[in-house]
Amino acid sequence: MGDSEKSFYVCNGAVLSSLDDLLGELKVMDAKTFSHHVARKKNDFSSWVGSCLGDLILAKKMLKTKKKESMIRLLEKKVGLSGDKKKRDEVLTKIKRAISNG
Questions:
Q1: Domain span at residue 58?
Q2: How far is CA 25 from CA 29, 33, 48, 94, 95, in A?
């Protein structure tokens, strides 16, 4: 993304700008840092995903989870799906080009 207004600043100094970044950071994040951003009455990651990245469905799912491992699984599913869609779109583009070139 590269837009600092849409970046998430983790209390440990990490700067995130995508779901991939969040997933990677969660995998190495310590419990204290996670608890700083996710507590009973708040979920900073969910708020960021909804308001800055615009994925309201994922944000709602993330809001319901208070465990780091559960959040990682949610993001792995989401990131995996977007990766598959990207690959599918690339293949379809190649097929369309091949057809139009005869």
A1: 4-100
A2: 6, 10, 14, 34, 36
